[in-house]
Amino acid sequence: MGSGHSFNAIADGEVALSLTDLPINPVVENDGRQVSVAGHCTYGELALFLHRHRLAIHNLASLPHISIAGAIATATHGSGNRNGNLATAVSGLEIVSGDGRLMKVTRGDADFAGMVVHLGALGVVTRVTLDVQPEFQVAQCVYDGLAWDKLLANLDEIMALGYSVSVFTQWGQQAGSIWVKRTASTDEWPAEVHGATRAMLNRHPISGLDAQNSTEQLGQYGRWSDRLPHFKMGFTPSNGEEIQSEFHIPREYGVAAIDALLSIREKFAHLVQAAEFRTVAADELWLSPQYRRDTLSIHFTWTRDQDAVNAAARHIEQALSPFAPLPHWGKVFTGHHIGGKYEKLVEFGRLRDRMDPERTFSNPWLENVVFGSGEG
Ligand SMILES: Cc1cc2nc3c(=O)[nH]c(=O)nc-3n(C[C@H](O)[C@H](O)[C@H](O)COP(=O)(O)OP(=O)(O)OC[C@H]3O[C@@H](n4cnc5c(N)ncnc54)[C@H](O)[C@@H]3O)c2cc1C
């Protein structure tokens, strides 16, 4: 187990193995181009270490509390047309395999691309090496009052407005707000983009909620790690009163997919606390939902009503089915044998046979959802 932030049974088993009592021991390597650290280190802890060395990673998810090994297991991501998910920063792994071997692999080794988005299926990720870069500054602004027709007519332009862009919606009459995160630029922030107007107060992703725990938004530059997540480091964004789902679709189907969901929104909108559109760049990692495809990722934060959410997820999966959707591995979906949608599943299965022949690290979720061979 990592930090326990997944919303389905991916991390559930008869035995839970936690590494949190081990030291994280971060080390700068390769003249400051990489950092290695224990797999259970959180991104928040990593950021504190990187600050001391004036380094940064390329992106962060909406919260810094998750572990690196747990995040890469599920291809956790932030946003940005050119930003790969967080697993794409991994350049080396140390794994204790199911049969007890200590394995070290680096990018370019055989099977490396199969081991990074690992679903917890291969063994214990004890250490991770990540690509890092010199620290950089980010500023963000929020634009309110985006209309659906403007979003649909300008989706690509909107998602290209900054280094990382999110569109938040509650699937109501208006689309919602655009959150633009830019890296150092001297350009003025426009007062209006595509009919949405620049907010002069900080916003919370859920419209109307207190923004005091949101990261600073009023266009001032600050540390990458204080702007890329939506929530401040010292704050716990979720108190458990939510469930999340997310579906990744190829970027070119973005407008049609949003349109399809708009036409059935009465089936799910009442359960939505907040929903978010993000973009994630293509990669070469076998079980990444971005394997060889740039995606638009459609996220839902639901109120906590599991049966109603399952029904809503079923409607959404049906509406998105023409658009080759792949669910976020760590969130709620209803499909069976999702692994079968991945062209590299057979290779991943062979890799698992070699690394965990006795299925020490399997669980019902893996057998059902990934391999389609069991109950779960
Ligand atoms: C409030 C909230 C906000 C979120 N925001 C985002 C977001 O912005 N973007 C996004 O993509 N996702 C987001 N998520 C989902 C979350 O990032 C993923 O579910 C992620 O996998 C959770 O990491 P974790 O450390 O909690 O891992 P867990 O949920 O504990 O485990 C996930 C998987 O990793 C395996 N695992 C963990 N550690 C190890 C290890 N050391 N060795 C081997 N296997 C291991 C587990 O067995 C399991 O298979 C969010 C979740 C929450 C609760």
Overall pLDDT score: 95
CATH class of the largest domain: Alpha Beta
Shape: globular
* Span of the ends, CA to CA: 18 Å
Strand content: 15-25%
Q: Could you say which small molecules are bound to this protein?
A: flavin-adenine dinucleotide
Oligomer description: single chain
Main β sheet profile: 10 strands, antiparallel
User: Which radius of gyration do the C-alpha atoms yield?
Assistant: 20 Å
Describe this structure in words.
With 376 residues, the protein is an alpha+beta fold. The protein folds into 2 domains: 9-134, Uridine Diphospho-n-acetylenolpyruvylglucosamine Reductase, domain 3; 137-327, 2-Layer Sandwich (Alpha-Beta Plaits). The chain has 9 helices and 17 strands. The protein has helices at 43-52, 68-73, 112-115, 148-153, 155-159, 254-262, 306-320, 345-355, 364-370, and strands at residues 27-29, 34-38, 55-56, 90-97, 102-106, 123-131, 133-134, 137-146, 164-169, 176-183, 192-193, 196-198, 222-223, 243-250, 272-280, 295-302, 326-327. Strands 8, 9, 10, 11, 12, 13, 14, 15, 16 and 17 form a 10-stranded antiparallel β-sheet that branches. A 5-stranded antiparallel β-sheet has the order 1-2-6-4-5. A hairpin with a 6-residue loop joins strand 9 and strand 10. The radius of gyration is 20 Å and the shape is globular. The two termini are 18 Å apart. The mean pLDDT is 95. Flavin-adenine dinucleotide (FAD) binds next to helix 2 and strand 6.
